[in-house]
């Protein structure tokens, strides 16, 4: 790593294995654990199929983590996949990933998670709304910036407050994530125990499909499209597991600790998700779960807990969602500025992002650049539109990272590997094939979200041309 100038600080390796594990888990467990069961049920109309989607998404995510951990262990540094792609492929592909992360993947994730925080707050304290003539204004028939205005304003306020939290230091943000995660996991365990013992649910409830359920062949085009649409929701809930790679330059012994944190973190999250979603579907009939999707600010988990613990239970789960999304927003904001810092140092991002604060040793200007763009995305669309868009874009690059396992085995066969991908070459190949399938099915089934994601990805091309030209002039 280049020596910093005297006018700025430097990144410090301060995080151990447990801290990296905590950051992995807290980057993942956010709004999806409470909210995504409803749109998934609306696609599949059957509780057992919904649970199957959670299991399939967890296994596919685990295949990705098992594969990508080999690349992370071999090439660990601040910047995550940007560093990997620059060494695996070329400078342009690394830029395309970094730009897409900025415009779509991580910034939309920040906007989406913070949005659910504000929705949950709105359930406790109703936020102001604009008159209908303002709320219905749309841009191009796609974006409705003034709809749900009070929720969106609070979302932006949260993003700005937590960006300041990460601005003043990584350890402070990591400590906050750890404290929140412990409370959240304990509370989820209590919901599962209370729900299964006194929630009034039954296996009959779980096994009863929606009144709109129609038996279909698993090989039929309509079933495959519905399953992939449901998987987009589940993958949003698992999204964030790779973000720990962005802070590889601040993890102690990263070649060992980074892959261990990735794999163990995903396995832990998968167990948590299966338990809590089985509890939802065990307590409430699937049609009632689906009904919670129709209201703009209704969250499925709140409806379930209200069913067996009344309004006091609903208040408790609303507070829990506030804590969870608060912690996850904080962690999601934490990693990506390290990527923008790495890009700026390489002349492929706004120059200001390469600045490290001399007192706090954080990429302070990159943090604020991310905060501003995430806030703009808050006003651009709905929660589900944002999450579907970012998952589509994310899986393009997840597949590329996993392909890197094969590339590195050929390019660097004799380099010691602290971790080797389990099940190689079958597991990485399965994950790559699934990434391709998800991209194709999303283009067919949700073209609007996919095309918006592609447009934002391609918006970086003029910037790449300009920054490359500037670098050639300076050479």
Automatic annotation (TrEMBL):
It is found in: Membrane. GO terms for molecular function: L-amino acid transmembrane transporter activity. The keyword Ribonucleoprotein does not apply. Keywords: Membrane, Transmembrane, Transmembrane helix. InterPro entries: AA/rel_permease1 (IPR002293), AminoAcid_Transporter (IPR050598). Signal peptide: none annotated. Gene3D superfamilies: Amino acid/polyamine transporter I. It is a multi-pass membrane protein. The chain crosses the membrane at residues 15-34, 46-67, 92-117, 124-143, 149-167, 179-198, 218-238, 258-283, 314-335, 389-409, 421-444, 450-467. The keyword Iron-sulfur does not apply. This is Amino acid permease.
């Amino acid at each position: 790593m280049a020596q910093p100038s005297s006018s700025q600080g430097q990144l410090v390796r301060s995080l151990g294995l447990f801290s990296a594990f905590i950051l992995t888990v807290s980057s993942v467990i956010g709004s999806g654990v409470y909210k995504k069961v409803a749109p998934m049920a609306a696609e599949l109309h059957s509780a057992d199929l919904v649970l199957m989607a959670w299991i399939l998404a967890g296994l596919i995510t685990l295949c990705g983590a098992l594969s990508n951990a080999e690349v992370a262990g071999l090439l660990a540094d601040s910047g995550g996949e940007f560093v990997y792609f620059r060494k695996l492929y070329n400078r342009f592909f690394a830029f395309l990933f970094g730009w897409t992360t900025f415009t779509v993947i991580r910034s939309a994730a920040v906007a989406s998670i913070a949005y659910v925080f504000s929705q949950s707050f709105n359930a406790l304290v109703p936020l102001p709304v604009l008159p209908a003539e303002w709320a219905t204004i749309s841009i191009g028939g796609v974006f409705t910036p003034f709809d749900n205005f009070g929720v969106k304003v609070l979302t932006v306020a949260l993003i700005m407050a937590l960006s300041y939290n990460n601005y003043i230091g990584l350890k402070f943000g990591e400590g906050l994530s750890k404290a929140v995660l412990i409370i959240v996991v304990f509370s989820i365990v209590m919901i599962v125990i209370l729900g299964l013992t006194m929630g009034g649910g039954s296996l009959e409830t779980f096994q009863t499909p929606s009144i709109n359920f129609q038996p279909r062949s698993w090989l039929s085009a309509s079933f495959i499209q519905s399953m992939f649409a449901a998987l987009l929701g589940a993958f949003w809930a698992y999204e964030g597991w790779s973000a720990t790679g962005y802070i590889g330059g601040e993890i102690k012994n990263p070649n060992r600790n980074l892959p261990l944190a990735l794999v163990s973190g995903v396995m832990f999250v998968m167990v948590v998700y299966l338990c809590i979603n089985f509890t939802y579907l065990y307590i409430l009939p699937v049609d009632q779960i689906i009904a919670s999707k129709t209201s703009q600010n209704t969250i499925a988990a709140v409806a379930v807990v209200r069913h067996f613990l009344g309004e006091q239970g609903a208040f408790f789960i609303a507070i829990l969602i506030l804590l969870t999304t608060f912690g996850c927003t904080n962690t999601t904001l934490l990693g990506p500025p390290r990527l923008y810092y790495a890009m700026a140092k390489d002349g492929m991002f706004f120059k200001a992002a390469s600045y490290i604060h001399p007192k706090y040793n954080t990429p302070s200007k990159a943090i604020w650049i991310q905060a501003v763009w995430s806030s703009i995305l808050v006003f651009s669309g709905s929660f589900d539109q944002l999450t579907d868009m970012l998952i589509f874009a994310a899986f393009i690059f997840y597949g590329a990272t996993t392909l890197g396992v094969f590339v590195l085995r050929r390019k660097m066969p004799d380099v010691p590997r602290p971790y080797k991908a389990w099940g190689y070459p079958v597991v990485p190949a399965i994950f790559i094939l699934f990434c391709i399938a998800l991209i194709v099915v999303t283009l067919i089934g949700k073209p609007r979200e996919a095309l918006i994601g592609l447009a934002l990805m391609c918006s970086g091309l003029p910037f790449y041309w300009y920054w490359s030209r500037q670098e050639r002039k300076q050479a």
